[in-house]
Amino acid sequence: xxxxxxxxxxxxxxxxxxxxxxxxxxxxxxxxxxxxxxxxxxxxxxxxxxxxxxxxxxxxxxxxxxxxxxxxxxxxxxxxxxxxxxxxxxxxxxxxxxxxxxxxxxxxxxxxxxxxxxxxxxxxxxxxxxxxxxxxxxxxxxxxxxxxxxxxxxxxxxxxxxxxxxxxxxxxxxxxxxxxxxxxxxxxxxxxxxxxxxxxxxxxxxxxxxxxxxxxxxxxxxxxxxxxxxxxxxxxxxxxxxxxxxxxxxxxxxxxxxxxxxxxxxxxxxxxxxxxxxxxxxxxxxxxxxxxxxxxxxxxxxxxxxxxxxxxxxxxxxxxxxxxxxxxxxxxxxxxxxxxxxxxxxxxxxxxxxxxxxxxxxxxxxxxxxxxxxxxxxxxxxxxxxxxxxxxxxxxxxxxxxxxxxxxxxxxxxxxxxxxxxxxxxxxxxxxxxxxxxxxxxxxxxxxxxxxxxxxxxxxxx
Length: 462
Ligand code: 4AD
Ligand code: MG
Fold this sequence. Notes:
alpha+beta; 13 helices; binds 4-amino-1,4-dioxobutan-2-aminium adenosine-5'-monophosphate; binds magnesium ion; eight-stranded mixed sheet
């Protein structure tokens, strides 16, 4: 007999017929001469209730089941007597597949803290919260691909190992096969990178952007969706050392076109999630953030606000708020400033553009004022920066100048400069933090709870 998923069973038009279900026991209780077992197979937030009467030959086995056991059950699907579910299964055959000692199994029928669950990341997918999380991540990822595919963007895969710093910010993890106890050295005593695997220093990439630009300047519209790595020692609720980024790159596009794309994109992804992940989002809304769904609906129905950096700074200076970090033209916006703008001042997402060149990456297009660049950050309530992007500097001479000022060796970026020598065009792109997007959709406070296995400073278990 073919196994049915709990989700499909609960979606059936009517009860009746035999079903085979397999899953993990959430809870079991006895009432009178009947035992009730709730089982889950992760296909939906809902459990399926299995009912076994005392007269059944399986009753003793059922009584021995506890939270965490895996079981295989066949029986008849009937209308449930209880109020909390539509159907239940009158068990005919029950087989215990794997036990879970109740003295040892760490997940018991009570609310565990998120901190505790991080310590058992190999078991937390079995909780309601992390089952819902996995399904929302899946739904959001699918929506991202669908959005770009429907608009004719090509999905490209960019390398994870690289010799160039795409952001020029120096926060890269080194990749090496050298023996760290006894590395080969040059005469000067310095480690000889020429003897390393690639014959030169290599790193895990911080962004696929530079390679995405190569493909955009051939295929017009492309996007990446993959892991990126940042060796920043930031222990915050919004930073991971390994996170997933979505990076569209568009030829023949300026910053206005890019801001429009970003707005359409976020609205599409959140509409999709509200529609296709409704049950799981309702769960997060109930247990984690009572305003999560209303915030998502607000975003879908609002026109994003546009502010230049200079206007944003003026608003912050005149706000009368006390901030931890200073505000002033030339200083980067901190998360408290971003949140003030989007949450208190505007009450919807804000696209901040035209930042001072000295606080942004070398590849951003210089404005005519010689002071600011065509950068864009999309700020969202509760999260702050969710998207960072820019129009790219397509003029070779100006790009060279910017690289020099950033202390980058133009020889290492010869191919990036070639793109400006041969058939250069205006182009623009952005990066969306996938985990920040899932954080936003679910209302989860900590980014460690929206990725299966978070990597943060001093934390790499599982
Ligand atoms: O603003 P970032 O650093 O931009 C880039 O890397 C560009 N190359 C993107 C591009 O234009 N193609 O990062 C983009 C987004 C941020 O807005 C944020 O949502 C997310 O990536 N992000 C992080 N998410 C989790 N942990 C971190 N440490 C992150 N750093 C950035
Ligand atoms: Mg940024």
